[in-house]
Automatic annotation (TrEMBL):
It is an enzyme of class 3 (hydrolase). Its EC number is 3.2.1.8. Belongs to the glycosyl hydrolase 10 (cellulase F) family. This is Beta-xylanase. Residues 333-354 are annotated as: Disordered. Residues 348-448 form the CBM2 domain. It catalyses: Endohydrolysis of (1->4)-beta-D-xylosidic linkages in xylans. Residues 1-30 form the signal peptide. The lineage of its organism: Bacteria, Bacillati, Actinomycetota, Actinomycetes, Micromonosporales. Residues 28-330 form the GH10 domain. The active site is at E264 (nucleophile). Keywords: Carbohydrate metabolism, Glycosidase, Hydrolase, Polysaccharide degradation, Signal, Xylan degradation. The gene is xynA_1. Residues 333-352 have a biased composition (Low complexity).
Amino acid sequence: MRRSHAILTVLTTGALTAGSFAVLSPSADAATTLGAAAAGKGRYFGTAVAAYKLSDSVYSTILNREFNSVTPENEMKWDATEPTQGTFTFTSSDTIVNRAVSIGAKVRGHALAWHSQQPSWAQNLSGTALRNAMVNHVTQVATHFKGKIDSWDVVNEAFADGSSGARRDSNLQRTGNDWIEVAFRTARAADPAAKLCYNDYNTDGQNAKSNAVYAMVTDFKARGVPIDCVGFQSHFNAASPLPSDYQANLQRFANLGVDVQITELDIEGSGTTQANTYAAATNACLAVTRCNGITVWGIRDTDSWRASGTPLLFDGNGNPKAAYTAVLNALGGTTTSPSTSPSPSTSQPPGTKSCTATVALNTWTGGFVATVKVTAGATALTGWTATVTLPAGAAVSNTWNATAAGSTGAVAFTNIAYNGPVAPSASTEFGFQGTGSAPATTATCTAR
Ligand code: G3I
């Protein structure tokens, strides 16, 4: 697949209006999505994705707009990829990987070797037969996705809860204590470019379980067993709150010479309390240089494996929650909504409204994603329309942060309520995905 990037700049029409208006957020260039804001911090912001939900337009629009990493929620697991021994099925996992490629997102592979979600044939194996089946599974799956995976959860949840610090008993563990390092060595041989992670829950603070993982990583590093990262699932609720030593725990693992990643973040709750906890988790990652990304375990509350706890960043209708704004702000991004109420003392004289639109393209054979930045002139906008002309055969398939009139030819993209107001010289962004050839260098921006 060949990609190219281009920047097109277009200009302006004006409209004369008068009157006072709100003071608007002053952040002219701040990112307005989770992924873009995280990228500004040298990190990714990802979500778990379920293949069967990609046809849900609300779900898909948020995915395409907000996230630059995806983790298949169930589709890469052993039961999904090798339902019959030796017969591999990648249909739904390929669907997710293809979507990730189309939106420029990384992929976290999840999970090669795990005691849970094994196909029944594997559950019934033991000893050498199971060990060989595991090695073959890791080889085949990692080879299928070779070159497309940023980080693999090679081994998932292999340590026991509680104070023992022991390995979890499982059929894999009973094949011998070396099963974890065998899985890592096998994954490295199959896909040398992927980062190889150990992933677990209840390891988010310093405790007997995380101490045991820490000892394993220390040992692997000392003996040259390939391991590049440790994933901290970070499923939080009242019974399992964000630990006060979360950042310190991430840092002590990073100090071993591995990356650390927040891999399945969700926080049960609502409102300000939930938002503050999300911000604290985000800030902990930002404070650790080797924390290279955060993944939330689903998009809308209703997509969650524990939906009743409303643990995610978007409500069931796809509206961003307070937790979303808290994470976006922690990442240095901003929504484009007014930051304060209108005030007579901030009125400005009437002026000629104008805007420009800058279009950045990410293209590949048969499709493209366009990110359009609308910048106000010297006078604040209350709304805008940017018109992009598509070549024959091209069509808009998905739009975010704007409403598209039509899908072919000259397509007019108009603001939605929250990003219509733009302060003088400030910008807001919208985007769209299309099939066919990328747009021509003709576009206009109409100010209101
Ligand atoms: O697809 C079948 C459907 O055909 C059937 O009718 C239905 C009846 O139960 O089940 C459906 O499969 C469910 C699957 O999710 C897809 O929705 C399984 O029962 C259900 O067990 C499975 O749950 C997943 C869970 O892992 C299994 O352990 C969750 O979606 C998934 O979010 C969760 O993810 C795990 C991570 O992999 C590891 N860390 C913990 C995390 C949360 O439990």
